[in-house]
Write a structure and sequence with these properties.
The chain has 305 residues and is of the alpha/beta class. It has two domains: 153 residues, HUPs (Rossmann fold), CATH 3.40.50.620; 141 residues, 3-Layer(aba) Sandwich (Rossmann fold), CATH 3.40.50. Helix content is 31%, strand content 16%.
Length: 305
């Protein structure tokens, strides 16, 4: 078994990021599995300089220990080009000239409901993306936490595998990298469950193994909005400088709060112990069944982070 955590360095780690990291870490370590960290820095226009290094330091402060070297997607361009060549040879890709504006009201670029406008060739001159031609067969998989999932690929439509600027898409890169790193369990947020059928079809086309998938509840505001889209998606506490000891206690509180969001029912006094004690309790009491069927978990209206 091998798990992984793969953040994008486009902003600081927030409470939702921590929930995904803790969930994937506990899932792997409780089973004695390896746990990897990959930096998904392909979206270069959005990458914030220094953000990845700060993410890694934050993970260390929170007690995460990963196996092997960090993999940076920005160094894996050749592997993605090889995959694109393979897909083209299988006649599973096509050039698409549609922009987000063109697709407004039809799901948007790289989103459900792409209508297949350019399946027979670009419909207008100019830059083009490359889309993966999905099959007409539904994709079904058993999610570790959400149970059986079935998706109609005709409804989802053809996903982008290379952007108009020549950068490999998330959908392609994550499939290639998970296979290359030997990832067998992908535990991540429920906001990505809709990407899983595309990734499964890409794995099938490329002859790559399918990991086991588990999607953790998405941390949202009391009104249902995604945390990362609101003002409360602030960076999680980070111990630095003269106030380091005080902030280390804030780290313990953040970890304990995350365990609560993961339905693990930690004792209230755990928040006032050391980071090591919090981790020890979490490993001993990890209960993935408590997450069954939970797609969202809301922060309290009182300002819980």
């Amino acid at each position: 078994m091998t798990g992984r955590f793969a953040p994008s360095p486009t902003g600081k780690l927030h409470a939702g990021s921590l929930l995904a990291a803790v969930g994937s870490y506990l899932d792997a370590r409780a089973a004695g599995a390896r746990w990897l960290v990959r930096i998904e820095d392909l979206d270069t226009p959005r990458v914030i300089p220094g953000c990845a290094d700060e993410m890694l330091r934050t993970l260390e402060v929170y007690g995460f220990e990963w196996d092997g070297e960090i993999v940076w997607q920005s160094a894996r361009a050749d592997a993605y080009r090889d995959a694109l060549t393979t897909l083209a040879g299988l006649h599973r890709t096509f050039r698409c000239s549609c922009s987000r504006r063109d697709l407004a009201g039809e799901g948007g670029d790289d989103a459900p409901a792409y209508p297949g406008t350019c399946r027979c060739g670009p419909t207008k001159p100019g830059p083009t993306a490359v889309r993966f031609r999905v099959s007409d067969t539904p994709v079904t998989f058993d999610d570790l936490f959400l149970g059986s999932q079935t998706f109609d690929m005709r409804t989802l439509g053809d996903c982008i595998v290379e952007r108009r600027d020549g950068i490999a898409s998330y959908q392609l890169a994550v499939v290639v990298d998970d296979a290359w790193q030997g990832v067998t369990r992908v535990v991540r947020g429920a906001d990505l469950v809709g990407s899983t059928p595309w990734q499964i079809e890409l794995q099938q086309a490329l002859g790559l193994p399918r990991p086991i998938y588990g999607h953790l509840p998405l941390l949202v505001e009391p009104d249902g909005r995604k945390l990362s889209k609101t003002l409360r998606s602030v960076a999680i506490p980070f111990a630095t400088g003269a106030e380091g000891r005080m902030e280390l206690m804030a780290v313990s509180r953040a970890l304990t709060s995350t365990l609560t969001h993961l339905s693990q029912s930690p004792p209230p006094d755990l928040a006032y112990t050391s980071i090591k004690d919090v981790s020890k309790w979490a490993f001993a009491h990890w209960d993935p069944q408590a997450l069954a069927g939970r797609e969202k978990v809301a922060l309290s209206a009182s300002g819980d982070k």
